[in-house]
Amino acid sequence: MNKGLEFKNGLKAAIPIGLGYIPIAIAFGILSKASDIPNTISIMLSMVVFAGASQFVGVNMLSLGAATVEIVMATFILNFRHFLMSASLSQRIDERTSKRFMSLLAFGITDETFSLASMWEEKKLSPYFLLGINTIAFCSWNTGTWAGLLLGTALPDTLQNSMGIAIYCMFIGLLLPSMKKSIPVLVVAAMSMVIHSMFKWIPVLAGLSSGFTIIIATIAAATLGTILFPEGVEN
Amino acid sequence: MTNLYILVIFMALVTYIPRLLPMVFLKDMKLPPQLKVFLQFVPFATLGALIFPGILTSTGDIYSALAGGILAVILSLVKANVMIVVLGGILGAYILIMLM
Question: Are A78 and A31 in the same domain?
Answer without folding.
Answer: yes
